[in-house]
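Bit of a strange request maybe. I'm writing a small parser for structure token strings and I need a real example to test against, not something I typed by hand. Could someone generate the tokens for this chain?
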Amino acid sequence: MIKINVVAVGKVKEKYFAEGINEYKKRISKYADFTITELPEENFSKITDGGKTIIERETSHILPHLKGYVIANCIEGEKFSSESFSRTLKGLFDRGEGVITFVIGGSYGLSNEVKKRANKLVSFSDMTFPHTLFRLMLTEQIYRAFNIINNTPYHK
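Reply from user aminoacidic:
Good idea to test on real output. This should exercise your parser:
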């Protein structure tokens, strides 16, 4: 069974986001071994360097969790439709990628080091989203991709 990891900086504090994420996590488990790893978000109340130190600290937490084919979510990444996203995932599965890891950075984004380690950079939009909302969006799109791949009626 394919393994999909989501490595995300920060905790989901809002109950409604957590419930949605857990629902999609349960649905995805029909298709893949799916895990979410939450990493500590650095305290940014005393920023003096534009967040550079925070990104460096968060990078040190992120890097050990990057396994398999790594997809970093960042604004400068490639944009996909749901159909093309599912084709991309299917291509990875068909090619034998056993582990796919998605990375969601903290409030200041991802370091160049994490982006260089990634096999692909992906953006969902030019807009900025709260990280917890984005985590819900990502889990839904992964679930949707599996439904497109398996030709089920979820995706219309």
